[in-house]
Each structure stands twice: as C-alpha cells, then as structure tokens.
Amino acid sequence: MSKGVAITGMGIISAIGNNVSENYKSLIEGRKGISKISKIDTIHKNAIMVGEIDFTNKDFEDQLGLSADNNYSRTAMLGIVAAKQAIANAGITDIKKYSTGLISSTSVGGMDMTEQYYYEYLKNDKHRKYIDSHHAGDSTQKIAEHLGIEESLVTTISTACSSAANAIMLGARLIKSGELDRVVVGGKDCLSKFTINGFKTLMILSDTYNTPFDENRKGLNLGEAAAYLVLESDKVVKAENKKVLAYVKGYANANDAFHQTASSENGDGATLAMEQALKVAGLHPSEIDYINAHGTATGNNDLSEGRAIVRVFGNNVPDFSSTKPYTGHTLAAAGAIEAVYSILALQNNIIYPNLNFKTQMKEYDITPQTELKEKELHNVLSNSLGFGGNCSTVIFSKSQ
Amino acid sequence: MKKVYINSIASISAQKTFDNTRFLEEICSYAETVLPVVSPNYKDYILPAAARRMARGIKMGVVASKLALEEAELENVDAIIIGTGMGCVRDSEKFVSAIIDNDEQYLTPTSFIQSTHNTVGGQIALGIGCKGYNFTYVHSSNSFESSLLDAKLMLQNDEANTILIGGVDELGAHTTELHKVVNHVKKNIENSLDILKSNTEGAVFGEGANFFTLGNEKKSSTYAEVIGIKMYNTLKSSISDLAKQFITSQKIAIAHIDLVILGNNGDVTFDGNYNELSSELFANTQQVYYKHLCGEFNTASSFGFWLASKILKNQHLPKVTKLNNINDSSFKYVLLYNQYRGKNHSFTLLRKC
Amino acid sequence: MEALKQELKENIIEQLNLEDISVAEIGDNDPLFGDGLGLDSIDALELIVMLDKDYGIKLTDPKEGKVIFESVEVMANYISANRKK
Q1: Given A369, B130, B191, C3, which residue has the most CB atoms within 10 angstroms?
Q2: Is-catalytic flag, A44?
Q3: DSSP-based three-state secondary structure for C50
Q4: Residue A1's pLDDT band (boundaries 50, 70, 90)?
Q5: pTM of the model
Q6: From the candidates A153, A173, A194, A384, which should be mutated to test the interface with B, based on the most B CB atoms within 10 A?
C-alpha cells in the first residue's frame, strides 16, 4: 500500500463551462453559473435558482452521435462528455493496453426520465426504453461502453453528496493495492424534479444566489454537472512517460452517526474524515495550503463544517472557500467537480474566491477567502459531506 | 496481506432463513412471479420510534445487520459497506408519485430522505453509533460484489479489522409493474421451484437482505475464507475462458473446485452463460442454484453468498439447491458465478476454514 | 378549540406514523419534541406541510416551527389565530 496514485487526466462539464479550460476561466473571472431554471417545468421555477448546463438533451445526443432510439438519461450523457475529455486529456489512445476500471457515482441516475414517463410507461410503449436506464448503474455502464472499457471492474457508488469523493477514494485504493493499473473515477448528476422537490421539502433551497459561510445564508442552489479523473499507477506513469497533473495523496470517509440528514453541530464526522485523510497522506495540518470546502450554504452544513475545520486546524486554519456559488450543489458529482478545481488550484497556484460572502458568522471567527488569491500551493484538501452522515475528505498534492 | 473470513451471516429472504439454526429444511414455494420475503417480527428488533419511518428495505437491512453482529458477538464494526441495486425503491416511488399526483405541492420530506441510496447504511451506522467508513454500491447485479471487494481490500491491507457488508433490495409495486411490461418478469408460473424448466423469457422477481460480518481474524463462528472476487462489466470472450483465467489467477486448478453456485434465473434469453459452465467446464463438478428460492433482484447473489457460507460450514447440501448429483460432502473450494441479463458478471471464490 | 386539538392529535399520529401512540396519550400541554413525544427536525418539516395543507398557513423558516409546535395547545392557538382554511 505504498504506491503513488497519479492523476493524469481530467474532464468536466458544469454550469460554468463545458470543459476544463472554460471552467477555469469562469473560476478566475468570478463568473457564476447560477440562474433561473429553464429546462425543467417546475412550479418552483420562480422560487429557486440552479446551476444549469446550457446544452439540451438533443444537443448532447447530437454531440455523442446517439441514434434516435437511444435510451440515455441526461445523467449518462453528462457523464460521457466529461469522462471522454478525461481520457483525451490523459493522452490515452488504447484503453485496453492496461487493466482499466471505472468507478462512477450518481444520486439521481435516470430519474429525469422516470419522473416524466412514470405512469405513461404502463399505458403505451413509446418511452419504455427508458425503464432500463433508471437504475443508478446504468449511466456508469454507458460511460464504460463509450470509453471502450470491457470485461473490467465497473461499479457505481451512491452515498448522496459525498459520492464522487468516495469514487475517487476507491479508485485510489484500487491503484495502491495493485488491483488495477488505471481507473477512471468521478461522478455525474443532472437536475430533476425529484431532487428539486426533495430539497424543497427539507426547506434548504435558497431563492437567490447561495452564500456559503455567511451569517445570513439561506440555503443551497442545486446544480447539474459531471467530472472525471484518470488515475494511474506508478508503473503506467513510468512506462508511458506520463505528465502527472497532481497526486491523490490522502483520503478518508467517516460517518457522523448523528442524524439521517443533518450534520452534528460540532462536525464529528467531518473532523474524523479530515484527520484520517491527513494521516493517510502523512501530512501535518500546517502543510495544507487551501481547503476547498463542501460549503453548501445551508445553515447546518456550514456551521458543522466550519467547526470541524477549526477542530482540525486550530488557530492555523488555511485559506478556504466553497465553489458552490459558481456551480450550485451538484450532489453526487460535487466531489469530482471540486477535485478538478483543487487540481487546477494546485497547477495554477490560485485560490478561488468564496463568492457572495458578506457577513461573518457568529458561531466562529474563521472567514472564507473572498478574493482571488495567488499563492504557492502544495497540498489542497477537499471536503464532501452528505446525507446519512456521510463525510469524505480527499487531499490532492503536487508531489508524490 | 491478511486473510479475510466470513465470521457471521444473516438472511431475510422468501424462505425462512432468518432463523439461522435451520438450513432450508422447510421450503416455501410460490405460484406467483414476484416473491416477497418471509418477514421476521421486525418489532422484536426495532423500536417503534425508529421503525415509524422505515420502509421494508430498511427494516430488512437493520434486522439482518443486527443478526449478523449478534452472531459474531460484535457491538460495532470498523466499516459498513452495503450493496443495493435500487435502494429504498418504495420511498422513491412514493415521492415520484406524490410529485406527479399533487403537482409538486404539499410534499413531505420523509420519503425523499429515505429514497437516498445510502439510507440503509446510514441507518445502521446511526443505530450502532458506527463512525467508521460507510459506503454504498449501487451497480445492478454487481452491487453486493462491489461491497465484498471493497471490504476484502480493507481487511487484507489492515485498514479495518471487522466490517459489516450486506446486499439488500426491496420490491416496489410500480417498479415491478414496469419490469413486467418490458418482459423482465415472467408472465406466469405454476411453481417458483420449477423456474429452470419454464423455457420462457424473464425472471421471477424477489427481494431480501443478506448480511455478513467479515474480519481478518478467524473466530469460533467463522464460516469460510474469502479467497477472490472479480467483476466484469461486459462479456466479450467466453465465460469459460474468464472462469479459467479467474481460477488460474487464484493459483488453483479447475479440478480443485468442489462446488459451483450458479445464479440461473430461468430466463431462456440469458441463462446461456450459466448453461455453458454447467454443461462444459464444470460438467463433473457438483452444482447448485438458488434463485428459485429467493427470486431475482440486484443483490440476489448475496443469497448465493449466504448459501455458500452455510454449505462450507455445515458441509451439507440442501436437496432443493442441487442441479446435479456428483457429491454431497467434502467441500473445500466453492466458486460462485452470477450475472443479470448478460451484464455485470462476477466470480467469487470461497474456501473452507 | 377542543375539536381542533382532537383533530391535531389524530393528524399528528397519522402523519408521523406514531403507530404505538393513541390520542388519549397526548396531553394538550405535553412537549411534542425532545422529552415529550420525541419528535425531531424531520417531523417538524412534516408538520409544516400539514399546516399548509390543512389550514393554509405557510411557514418559510423551519425555525418558526420550533415555537409553534411546542405542544398541541400552542399549535391549536396559533392555528385558530392564523388559519386561512
């Protein structure tokens, strides 16, 4: 278990860009992707804001060259777009040359289609092709097919909002243990009435731009996105003379075991996750240069996560910010989106501003970074915290 | 690397398996194409205050986890890793239909919260106060196998010493109806025990929860050792070739396999892979099957894993599971093979302790 | 007012699936959360929907529920004063 885990490729599509460079441009220009919803007809359209991707399903079908009788959910199409970018970015032309797996995550799966044709399915066969694309594994299978991954380890993780961080974690462990030479990891989720209404019932959707770590935060904006990383073993990196973007240095998952949806006030689970990830990385808290926080802008998350950060870093809390004001909360994709942003931060020695922040929270005195900041970065820590008390931390580093 | 042992088992299925002192002596047969579980008295295990929001899947998972922990004499574990194809599908159905029926108004949060795939894992952690690693795999017929692989890696590398794993799926009425209209469920059957003779397309659907505690130390309760697990998203070559490769990679030979446990579900369109193994590579090996007992569901293979554990510990084959008659005892190596509708294939190799 | 309290108790039991509790066991002034009936934040969200659906009262901040759902007595008073249906 002493092997390195190199990141050699990444791909992303989100509300702030259709590829890595567009996302980076938006990040440094402070350009938000949050707007009124246009692609889903919901009665809440005037009461919420979302991070929506401009392309329609038809646009994606054309881009991917899918036939008219395809049964791809929007989740699957977002995933394929991002995963293909990651493979191209890693310079992989023959995927079968090394044993390659795919670990992907989603929370909604094919729910976007199911909620449209739920009763119609029983009446006529027009859209029955989508019945098979409902389950969470379907979008992962389709990505594998588009990447040419065959007879290999392909699986799906769904642990709510920490899902993609957990996919990265499993991928790293598969490389470290020698189970695979190469693994594509990440997550995807599209917007759906199901999640909009679900979060609405929890009364944690903001009617305006989300404001992480702000005293007057009103809740989150949902977003849709997909992002994937290519992880490769030392063996492949050496044999192929690969350019390494960054390394997955540490990771941990812990459970709050406090409440079904809410985080404990003192952030027990998040504290454990950060502490253990530092241990796996062999890093001291003072060696973390930037925290890409989960920071959803709900009352509960930001209080709990902030307290956990204070518990772990004491009086030396590194610069931290949440990028949710740019993209919205992209659920099972969030950990992968923020992994790409963390790697870009390392590559460019840049810390992104926590947009929309105005008022200091009363419960603690740490303040997010609110302006774009240039600083030499070596290690970036990224948090992803979810329902079911699921808390994950991944640490990305410049050097092995 | 440390070894991986199955230290306890628990099963809630369409058979009376929750009583672990029994081993398929009394068999339930069904004349329907959908087999619900024989439920234990959930109230004996879950307090009413906790049970009031739990759909059947969560109850099954929570009770099966309690039974498994009890047998291994564990109060807590280092990690909880769950496999579920559909999660709590009843709550998903409830929330989707509420959205449509009420035009997105007057919706309440409970069914949405419960519909999240990791609800069972989260509830178990909440119940026993487990702050450790908590993962949920949701990859069709490889959901349970993914949890097994993850647990195996952790135990071998000493990242954990005790892990609770489980496969759980519940039947949802609307979802079952949808699978009926696309012929994934058989039209009708006379007797669920005869599904392999049906010669029709589709499967008999089921549900269940099969939970296990795994550890890297052998105990008096140990059932078997987990030797290998491998998954394949697709099948491009032949299943016999993959089986040979897998067995060779475990440093044993075909002849060492004493028992093959197959996931046949009687679907004429997709049983070919199983038939190829049973009629060729393993023609002279004892074979058993189980989906006529528990029905087909995304984590039905966890029932096969339960069956393998029971057989290895008791060295006894229940008659109702036999596909052929080669031998009745002396089982050392057991190979499991499963797939669903030609996708997500897996081999699991267990050894007697 | 008595009829409203009776109705509230029945609805609370039904909506929150409190199978093992009867109307007679809920006192007008018993705390609904914490040590009393033992309800939690998810139940509070359920009750907010009940206020909207049955009495036309819309709460926008879940924190308001903490005060209103103190007991059946407090709830009944609040509903009588604010109901729209």
Answers
A1: B130
A2: no
A3: helix
A4: very low
A5: 0.98
A6: A153
pLDDT in tens, B38-77: 999 999 999 888 889 998 999 999 999 999 999 999 999 9
Q: Which of A146, A161, A190, A391 is catalytic?
A: A161
* C62 close to A (CB below 8 A): yes
Nearest-10 Cα torsion for B107, B109, B114, B119: 150
> How many residue pairs from chains A and B have C-beta atoms closer than 8 A?
200
Token readout for A390 is 């699921």
Residue pLDDT, tens place only, A134-184: 999 999 999 999 999 999 999 999 999 999 999 999 999 999 999 999 999
Least CB–CB distance from A158: residue in B117, B179, B233: B117
From chain C, the residues in CB contact with A260 under 8 A are 42
Domains of chain C by start residue, with CATH: 2-82 (1.10.1200.10)
CB contact under 8 A, B139 and A137: yes
| Number of Cβ pairs < 8 A linking chain B and chain C | 23
pLDDT in tens, A262-278: 888 899 999 999 999 99
Say which residue, C34 or B31, is predicted with more confidence: B31
Of A140, A150, A177, the CB nearest to B157: A177
Decide if pLDDT at B175 tops 50: yes
CATH-assigned architecture of domain B5-215 = 3-Layer(aba) Sandwich (3.40)
Q: With a cut of 50, list the residues of chain C below it in pLDDT.
A: none
Contacts of A262 in chain C (CB under 8 A): 41
Domain ranges for chain B: 5-215, 226-351
Residue type, B124: I
Domain ranges, ordered by start, for chain A: 5-240, 247-397
For residue A24, the SS3 value is helix
Distance (Å, rounded) from C-alpha A221 to C-alpha A374? 28
pLDDT at residue B61, rounded to an integer: 97
Query: What's the token pair of residue B49?
Result: 């205050």
Say whether B226-351 and B5-215 share the same fold: yes
The CATH homologous superfamily to which domain B226-351 belongs is Thiolase/Chalcone synthase (3.40.47.10)
Residues A251-288, buried b or exposed e (16+ Cβ, 10 A)? bbbbbbbbbbbbbbebbbbbbbbbbbbbebbebebeeb
Q: Is the ipTM of this complex over 0.90?
A: yes
Tokens of A53: 């991707």
Q: Looking at chain C, which residue has its C-alpha nearest residue B53?
A: C17
Does residue A341 surpass a pLDDT of 90? yes
Q: C2 — phi, psi (to 5°)?
A: -60, -40
Please tell me which residue in A134, A146, A190, A329 is annotated as part of the active site. A329
Is residue A329 part of the annotated active site? The answer reads yes
* C-alpha distance from residue B202 to each of A124, A350, B183, B196 (Å): 20, 56, 6, 11
Residue A197 CA neighbour count, 13 Å, CB half: 30
Whether residue C41 lies within 8 A of chain A, CB to CB, comes out as: yes
pLDDT digits (tens, 9 = 90+) for A202-257: 999 999 999 999 999 999 999 999 999 999 999 999 999 999 999 999 999 999 99
**Which CATH number applies to A247-397?**
3.40.47.10
Is domain A5-240 annotated with CATH 3.40.47.10?
A: yes
Asked if the Cβ–Cβ distance from C17 to B49 is below 8 Å, we say no
Contact check, Cβ <8 Å, B139/A136: yes
